[in-house]
Amino acid sequence: MRIGIIGAGQLGQMLGLAARNLDVDCCFLDPSISPPAANCGEVIQRPFDDADALAEMAASCDVITYEFENVPVAALETIAGSVPIYPPPDALRHAQDRLDEKQLFDRLEIPVPGYRAIGSREDLDEAATALGLPMVVKTRRLGYDGKGQYVVREAADADGAWSALGNQSLIAEQWVSFDYEVSVIGVRDRSGEIAVYPLTQNSHEHGILRSSRSPVDESVLIDRAGDYARRLLEHLDYVGVLALELFVDGDRLLANEFAPRVHNSGHWTIEGAATSQFENHLRAVLALPLGATNGVGHAGMVNLIGGIPSAVRDLEHGVVHDYGKTARPGRKLGHVTVVADSASKRDTLLAVVEKTVTQSTSTTETTA
Ligand code: AMP
Predict the structure, then answer these.
(1) What b/e string do you get for 56-69 counting C-beta neighbours within 10 Å, with b at 16 or more?
(2) What is the CB-side half-sphere exposure of residue 363 using CA atoms within 13 A?
(3) Cα 251 to ligand 1 centre (Å)
């Protein structure tokens, strides 16, 4: 079997590594020179919306998938009649527009922070009155890792938000002083079977995921988060892995966004679950039976951002994943996973990894 993967970044690389174990060939589409997934299969080095390259992939692959959510939907539709594309492009369409995404959550009765569509400077004032301050103004499209966002803390900040972002379609959201953030990763196969991974708690820094730990010991949350993920998976007639990010605020669980793809907060599943999110994504889209999603211990993951300190490679506990990317501030270059037989041991190991990363990053050791 041969799978076409749009995008050859680190998620493509981890899909490619999982594909080897399933004896599946990969073909990637990515305009970058030497992307991380280059060692996992053929890379067609063309833009993501290149009609000829997409047609070539469609003709030579059994199924097409993607590893990032800004794939142009119109380009995918040019090959939709000739090859199965999973997850369905409709899921991508919803995830690409924060307003559309929030409205979908509303329709599925998945609670969200209060929000308003913003089309003018006056709308910002109205939103501030309706939602209260602080609120966060976000671009509806193409935002990721906290980019394209502006926090309006007091009325006077609205001008700044408008001059920074006002040339794009926007959404304003109530600022949630959440206790913590979680994500739920679910997978649905081509026959409609659904499996959900143990809940993951995430911590972000400057909008970028810094670390994750799983499982989260809150049974009420687990059931509710799993139920929300199932609603999305079923409603979208989804095939593949989907990640739903949520805020935990007291007893409220509010959806922030979903990603129609494998997700950074599920990297721990490579060592910490019976079947990784990458293998299960491939299994789902290739019509293979899903693997078990149970955890095999207490897992934690720390992202390596901006540099990979050599001290991390000397850690006694921790599996280092190096994506082989050129170091740049704020860039995700790799991650470290630890797995322990109790939550407290996991937290101790994770703290050692975090300390090593923080101390060494300040000495600016980086990979080339
Ligand atoms: P996003 O790009 O929407 O995932 O936002 C990146 C991060 O910004 C989230 O993981 C949160 O830590 C924070 N954030 C986003 N929206 C809100 C909100 N409405 N209230 C509080 N924090 C938020």
Answers:
(1) bbbeebebbbbbbb
(2) 11
(3) 18
